[in-house]
Design goal:
The chain has about 325 residues and is an all-alpha fold. The chain has 14 helices and 2 strands, in the order E-E-H-H-H-H-H-H-H-H-H-H-H-H-H-H. The two termini are about 25 Å apart.
Amino acid sequence: MQNSFTVVGFLPSRRFPGFCFLATLALCLAPTRLPAQQTKNPAPTACAPTNLTSLIVREGHSVRVSSVEEPSFHTETSTATPTANSSSMSTTSMGEQSAAYKTLENDARHGSLAAQVNLAVASLAGWGISPNAGTALYWLHAAAANHYAPALFDLGILYSRGCGVRQDFSEAFHFFHAAAISGDLPAAVNLGYLYDQGLGVSQNRSEAARWYRQAAERGEPTAQYNLADLYLRGSGVALDESVAFSWFQKASLQGHSGARIMMGSMLAAGRGTKKDLQAAYFWISAASLQGDPRGDATLRLLERELAPEQLEEAIKQARSLSHYNPQSPVSALLQ
């Protein structure tokens, strides 16, 4: 599937599950919101997120969307020709940005679907032109009329955020569904989330699990985390802690900090897997080193149960892992 440079959004995670640990570990992780990524609100002059430029990388002479997080993004190449990367779009002069915009506009008018989507994003971000959501919507609808999945996905983002249009989750659902059935991975995750939370559609956790699974089996860590949480709670699927642990593990290996905390928590409690306090400390420490402090209280409790040499080894391994946090291959939706 060909891609373009896509509107950034948030891949939503479900609520952070809680565990009450028995025996020597009196642990309780309170349920708190765990978004897949967190960014500041966009500047009021532009609908596009302020971090949009950091998600664009060079690949040959074409523009490509990088992944987010718990960043998670599409990684396929577009056919657009302007040169842009993670630094150039934020550092080039207005004249250079204006020239790039004109190139996109010319390609878009000649029918390039990728250029139409890229032109829409440039219009939202205000690259080479004043931010203009109306122009963005025009070009996205033009590409969507040709069933171009990235455009359908981006329209879902705009309607879910109320960017340039009135916020409408029903419309967002429509566009995400159209993109998802075309095989768009981020749209499948976001569609699952809308079913999960009952946004724009009747809540249906079984359908949420189905769409999460489609993305999870293709390697998307937030989908893996969300699916794991459904299995942990027995919501929309049969309760199965071993299956939950397996999906948390898959997301953990891709750098999902929330999944690492949950995996460590399950190891500490012996839920869905054999109890292993040293391994629990390792995984939660890895999340903490990523800047996620929600497992820190658990780490302090685990420190009382582990020998100094066990702590030293777990910390050493966690520090080693912190240098390897692969990015997700897909894009994202809601806060």
